[in-house]
Fold this sequence. Notes:
- 53% of the residues lie in helices and 15% in strands.
- By secondary structure, it is of the alpha+beta class.
- The protein is rod-shaped.
Amino acid sequence: MRLTRWWRRRSLRTRLTVIAATAIAASVFLAFQVASELLDWELRSSAEEQLRADSRVLAANAERAGLARVELPPYPGSGRLVRVVLSDGSIRTPDGQPALPPVSEDAWRVARGLSADLVESGDSDEDGYLVYTLRAGDGAVQVARAADDTPINRFGFGMLLIGLLCVVCGALVGRAVARAGLAPIDRLTAAAVRVARTRDLDADIPDEGGGEIRQLIRSINDMLAALRDSRQAQRLLAEDAAHELKTPLTSLRLNIELLIRLDRRGTLDSALPSESRTRLLHDLGAQVAELSTLATELTDLARGDVSDENAELLDLADVVVAAAAQARSRMPDVEVSLDVTPVLVSGRPAALRRAVLNLVDNAGKWSPADQPVQVRLRVGGTSAVLEVDDAGPGIDAADAPRVFDRFYRADSARALPGSGLGLSIVQRVVDAHGGRATVARSPRGGALLRVELPIARLAAGEGTAVR
């Protein structure tokens, strides 16, 4: 666990350096093992061939002169070692020659004629010999050579030096490669730190590198662009809100100051007759209500999301009926006519109800007293189509493209109450549900606002109209 925690705390450069050095060390070690085995096998094969050749020469001499009389020159101090094994169990060795390991049982079998030849090796410190036994006459001859590990040791030492050099070079190369490969990441990190420190979202990160690095840089640039748009939208929202709040707040402040001034002078009753005072108080109440509505709509619009509620499968007809009932309670003088067909959609009930309510409220401002606001819900192909129309003056062609903009109000609507946010909230709700909101002219001469929402995957049932 400690090693794991230590490893996770290391930088990516350190990890790549360690991985590269470890990989090279493992490769060198594996190569050393394979090469050592091959070298040992080659040296052993060469030594065995030499022992066989020497044994055949000694065996030929022994067969001519006899094992007991064959001449064994004195040991010169180095080189091969020889021994003659007689069938009676005795042995002969040259004068001055170091003692060889005792004759093994297998070698006695060769001397007795039970086997042709034999190669034996002793790997211990006392038996460090390679012994070849060959049948000759009525016994056997043995030629031995001391096992020499010097070539292997030299080779291993050389491989160790080469391995250390390769590991060091590999670590340096790995770090250089890591530095070069992570250079775009370093620049990306520096740019991100600079953006976080300066709050400057307008400076895009240079698109350099390739593959995943380029994709990462593009993703971060897209994120910065989205943040710029969000900040711009917030700035515009704050500016528009300040502009829209200025007029009702100014009117409210002037009316309140007038009341305070008259009350201080003691001339409130004489300066403002009962009818004027009632009208002034009514205006104050209307202005407070307008500010309250504006604050609510600003809060809804500034959320950034339609709602915190989860989407669910619902009947849009129930939402429309509930919104119409709420609109009737808010506008008792306006008649709302319903003609809806049950249709299932996937959405957020509260957000959809608010959108429908805003559509009906907007239509109620323009509809004449003797003409109802007509609300229709039907199935159109793969969409649920909601239409709200009135018999008012309609929307001018020049104003139609900006109907759903925030705070936009046509010149003809300046005298009517409202903030210009209602239809903007409708547009946002519809967009969040994957739908579309449009405006057209009603057959009755007024405005026709149409909302299309995708039908849920479950088949929408056909039902009777609700009046």
